[in-house]
Every structure is written in C-alpha cells, then in structure tokens.
C-alpha cells in the first residue's frame, strides 16, 4: 500500500459526521458540483490542474451570484429602500462569513479588496507609507509572488526604504536562522507568503510571526494559496495583516480581502478617496469613516463578496480535514508518478508542501509541454508564475506547474503522466 | 496525423533542437535583445549588413521549440536578402501564422517557412514564432530598448 493510500484511510476514518471524507473526495462525487468539469477541450474532457492560478467554481457559488442579481441587486450602505437593505445585508453578512472563515476576531477587521494584490498594495500605501521611512527595512522571502515584491519596491523608490530578502535553499525552503538574522532594529515590516505558488512550499509562518513580534515588527501574510486548501486561523497565526483572493478559493475573481488587526487599521490613513469611506464631507474638510469602510471607497464588488461568502460556505461544508488529506494524497501520488517520468526535474521539494507540483522536462520547453498537454484537454500552467526571482534562483526560464484542488482525481495525474510520455516521444527521442 | 504534429513538424523539431546560426555576436555586428515576458523567452539577434543586403544573421538565447526554430529558420532565410525583401517576408510570415492575408501569395514567397502554418491554430504561440523577427527589426534600427512581443 502506498503512503498516499494510508493517509487516505486514516483520514476517512476520522472524518466527522456530516462532513466529507478524503475517501469521498477521492471518489469524485464532488465533481458534480463543478459544472465546468463537463466541458471538453480540443474534443477531450477537460482535466483541470491549474487551480493555483484560479480555482473552478462550484454550483453553490454560481447560484448565489445568480440569486443576488435576480433578487437583491442594489447598491449598499446608501438606500432606505428594501432592496438596498437586502443588498447591504448580503454584503455585510459575507464579511461576517469571511471573518469566520479565517478566524478573525471581529468583522470590522475584514476589508474587501480586489484580491491579494490590492490588499498588499493597500498595506504598503497606507501603513507602509505612514510608518516606514528612509533606511527602514521591509523583509520578504525569495519565493514571493510579484504582488508581494513590487508594492514594496514602489515604496523603496518613493521613500528610500530597504528591501531585504530571506534566501531559499535548493529544495525551496527558507532557513529560520537566516530569517532571524535578517530581522534588524531597522526592520519595520515582514511580508511573507504562507504558501508559495511557484514551489508549493508551506512556510513556518506562525514561528516567523513569533520571531518578528519578539522585536515588535508587524507581519503581513500573503495567504492567496492557503485559503481553500487548509484551515486558516489568523488569530492563531497572530499575524497583523492577512491577504487573500476569492478566485483561488472557489469564489469569483475581482474580490478578495485584507484582514488587519483592528488597532492597526484604526491608526491607518485611508487608501483611496471617494464615497462610502467618509463620515462627512464639506469643501473644507472631510471626516473619514471608521473601519472597515474607510478602506472601501466607492461602490464595492457586492456580488463578488456574496460569491466569496458562498465559497466559504462550500469549504466548510466540504470539510477542511477531508480537503487537506485529499490534496495531500494527490501531491504524494503526483510527486511519485511524475517524478518517475525520465528526464523530470522537480522544482520545489520543500519538507512541507501544498498540492503544487512544478517541474521541468529535459529537452522540452515548458511552453511546448503545455501546448501538447492542452491538446489532450489537460490544463496546466507553463510560465514563470509571476515569480521570476524564483525562476532565476533555480536557473530556469519557466516551469510546468500542475496544481490540485478538491475536484482532482488520481486519474487526472495518470493522464498527465501519459501526456508527458507523449511529449517525450516528440521532443526527447 | 495527431494535432500536435501539425504544429511540431519534423523540420521545426529539428531546428528547435539543433538551431542553425546559433552563436554570440561577432565583431561589427548589430545586436538587439528580444524578450517574451509571457514565457520568459530571451533571444539576441545579430545582423551584418553590406550595402543594403543582409550579409549575415545569427542568434543566441533560450526559448521554446517554436521560437528557437523560427529564429533558426529566419537566419537561414534572410541571409543574402535585401531589407525590402526581408520586410515583405515578415509580413507574409505574420499573415501565415495569424491566418490573415492571402495564403496563396504568402505561401509562395515563404519557401521553407511554410512549415509554421500550423501556428495559426495556436494563437497563444504566435508571439513565440514572431519574437526573432521583431528582434531582427530592432537590430536593424539599433534600438536600445529590448524588442518585446507585448
Ligand atoms: C502567493 C500569491 N500571492 C499573490 C497572488 C496574487 O493574487 P491576485 O492576482 O488574486 O491578486 C497570487 C496569485 O497568483 C499568489 O499565488
């Protein structure tokens, strides 16, 4: 019995009542909830393994969006009429669902954004601009997504702050000693991914937060790849900020959230100016609204928030214990099976990994691999994954990346392996 | 024939694997850099001109099979051509791989480059096939900016 099967069995025995089990997910029933999986691509059934880029949407999320537009469409926080009240109720109750979904203490600590990118920019442009000055340091890691690099570089160019980078080893892990050594008395901010989208590495974020807090340094966690795959509890992590994207956790694109501790948010200046973020406006003076509304200028993505709420409901119903066990099984199986294809070099072999498998096939460029797989209906990502420094670190221009979610099956991985053999026939004769 | 064979013709695979005129710039050649930010392909194209005629073209860098083969075959095709002829070829080549223009006339002037016709079924790969050509043009104009497919 393979290692994957053992963990599957244990998980299936421990699944609480009313919840899915890893065995149930492995059986694939959940796929019925994802209408897009019926699609064919180039005449072949779609095999979708690009969930780290964006996840597919369950019927429940699609229905919530349709229901909103059918019955509750209106602006929020602005009308006395019934529909406006209903829309406001839906929007604010989605905020509450997000709060619960990531374990925040209060719903006013949840700010809706366009996604992770906007959440990080918001922190850089408000908290960062206010509190980080010339010569002060922001510490990130070598595996960050461009969205956790560029906003800090913009601040560097504007204010002369210093960007420091924790290195990664050949497996794609950081060393906590390196990290600790880089925390200096000039460090004003640590900003790190919980899970790397390019390598799958799960960082020891809780420990990293503890080490930073011991020096009174606040920590932003980029949770884009984490939410939807494992339980996230921002109070347990004790991070100061947490950024997430709806579209990577079964919700629509264009919606995401920033969590921030209330006492920090309270002190922060507004991000953008406009409607909803103000208490009173005269031409002489504007009094800003309280949190979270101070950071939500203009009409927000109401239906996006509704979809995100529904996605959290979907996750809760599906059960994290089952999701984590199922995805771990897929990763283990994929690592074995893909790793056994001749000429494969895995990029990212960290000790703790999420269900992301990045690799190179000797003799074939990732783009060519991607095209040949696509013709078999297999969707994987080929590229630099918005993490060019990671590519440079491993000396590759790009990688092929297969990433998994609740709806994937071991048979998807079998199809991938078959596809890779086909690529080898073409390129590696 | 499988669908991917229409794209990855034997000639393309051969040039992808064993690119011709693949070398660093030589003394006196004009060089330009080309970059496809989508996939990270990076190439340099070197050109030596002699009285309005392309005396020599070579390239260097890394890319997928389509972009490498396209660059390799471009260098072979352009050698000895006038700039006007090169411009006409690029136009025909572009028409061919985007499925625009008049296939009859375009194919007639393209010779071996006709093997890239399959690219038209793969719109995301058009940029791979044109990167070398854009970079070639940049080398002629001595552009300081890297040529980009974007
Ligand atoms: C780790 C990580 N951070 C940030 C982002 C940016 O997310 P978004 O594009 O949704 O803002 C991504 C998306 O790929 C990601 O994987």
Automatic annotation (TrEMBL), chain A:
EC number: 2.8.1.7
Catalysed reactions, as listed in the record: (sulfur carrier)-H + L-cysteine = (sulfur carrier)-SH + L-alanine
Broad enzyme group: transferase
A GO biological-process term: cysteine metabolic process
A Pfam family reported for this protein in Swiss-Prot or TrEMBL: Aminotran_5
Record carries keyword Disulfide bond: no
Family: Belongs to the class-V pyridoxal-phosphate-dependent aminotransferase family. Csd subfamily.
Record function comment: Catalyzes the removal of elemental sulfur and selenium atoms from L-cysteine, L-cystine, L-selenocysteine, and L-selenocystine to produce L-alanine.
Name by which UniProt lists this protein: Cysteine desulfurase
Protein's organism: Candidatus Polarisedimenticola svalbardensis
From TrEMBL, chain B:
GO molecular function, one term: iron-sulfur cluster binding
CDD domains for this protein: IscU_like
Domain NIF system FeS cluster assembly NifU N-terminal: start-end pairs: 8-128
Single GO BP term: iron-sulfur cluster assembly
Coiled-coil region(s): none
Family: Belongs to the NifU family.
PANTHER family named among the record's database cross-references: IRON-SULFUR CLUSTER ASSEMBLY ENZYME NIFU HOMOLOG
Protein name: SUF system NifU family Fe-S cluster assembly protein
Origin organism lineage: Bacteria, Pseudomonadati, Acidobacteriota, Candidatus Polarisedimenticolia, Candidatus Polarisedimenticolales
């Amino acid at each position: 019995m393979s290692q994957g099967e053992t963990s599957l069995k244990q998980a299936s025995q421990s699944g609480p009542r009313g919840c899915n089990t890893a065995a149930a997910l492995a059986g694939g029933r959940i796929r019925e909830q994802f209408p897009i999986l019926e699609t064919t691509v180039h005449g072949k059934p779609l095999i979708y393994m690009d969930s780290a880029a964006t996840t597919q949407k369950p019927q429940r999320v699609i229905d919530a969006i349709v229901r909103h537009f059918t019955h509750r469409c209106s602006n929020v926080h602005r009308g006395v009429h019934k529909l406006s009240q209903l829309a406001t109720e839906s929007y604010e109750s989605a905020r509450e669902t997000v709060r619960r979904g990531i374990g925040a203490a209060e719903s006013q600590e949840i700010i809706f954004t366009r996604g992770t990118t906007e959440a990080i920019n918001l922190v850089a442009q408000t908290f960062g601009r206010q509190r980080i000055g010339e010569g002060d340091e922001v510490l990130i890691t070598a595996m960050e997504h461009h969205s956790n690099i560029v906003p800090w570089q913009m601040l560097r160019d504007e204010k002369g702050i210093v960007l420091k980078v924790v290195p990664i080893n050949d497996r794609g892990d950081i060393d906590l000693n390196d990290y600790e050594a880089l925390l200096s008395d000039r460090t004003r901010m640590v900003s790190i991914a919980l899970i790397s989208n390019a390598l799958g590495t799960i960082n020891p974020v809780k420990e990293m937060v503890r080490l930073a807090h011991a020096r009174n340094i606040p920590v932003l966690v980029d949770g884009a790849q984490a939410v939807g795959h494992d339980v996230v509890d921002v109070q347990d992590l004790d991070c100061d900020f947490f950024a997430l994207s709806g579209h990577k956790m079964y919700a629509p694109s264009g919606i995401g959230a920033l969590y921030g501790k209330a006492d920090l948010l309270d002190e922060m200046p507004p991000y953008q100016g406009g409607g909803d973020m103000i208490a009173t406006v005269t031409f002489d003076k504007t009094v800003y609204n309280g949190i979270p509304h101070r950071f939500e200028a203009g009409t927000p993505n109401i239906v996006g928030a509704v979809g995100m709420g529904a996605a959290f409901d979907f996750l809760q119903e599906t059960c994290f214990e089952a999701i984590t066990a199922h995805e771990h099984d897929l990763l283990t199986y994929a690592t074995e099976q893909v790793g056994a294809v001749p000429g494969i070099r895995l990029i990212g072999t960290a000790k703790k990994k999420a269900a992301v498998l990045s690799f190179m096939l000797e003799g074939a460029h990732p783009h060519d691999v991607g095209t040949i797989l696509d013709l078999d209906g297999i969707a994987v990502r080929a590229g630099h994954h918005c993490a060019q420094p990671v590519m440079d670190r491993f000396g590759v221009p790009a990688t092929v990346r297969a990433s998994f979610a609740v709806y994937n099956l071991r048979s998807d991985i079998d199809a991938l392996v078959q596809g890779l053999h086909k690529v080898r026939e073409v390129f590696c004769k | 024939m499988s669908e991917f064979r229409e794209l990855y013709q034997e000639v393309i695979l051969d040039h992808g694997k064993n690119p011709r005129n693949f070398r660093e710039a030589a003394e006196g050649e004009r060089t330009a850099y080309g970059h496809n930010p989508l996939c990270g392909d990076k190439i340099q194209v070197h050109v030596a001109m002699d009285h309005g005629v392309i005396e020599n073209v070579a390239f260097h860098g890394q890319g997928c099979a389509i972009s490498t083969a396209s660059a390799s075959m471009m260098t072979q095709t352009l050698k000895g051509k006038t700039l006007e002829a090169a411009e006409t070829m690029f136009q025909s080549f572009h028409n061919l791989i985007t499925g625009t223009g008049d296939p009859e006339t375009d194919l007639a002037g393209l010779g071996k480059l006709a093997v890239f016709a399959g690219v038209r079924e793969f719109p995301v790969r058009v940029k791979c096939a044109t990167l070398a050509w854009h970079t070639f043009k940049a080398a002629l104009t001595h552009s300081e900016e890297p040529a980009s497919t974007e």
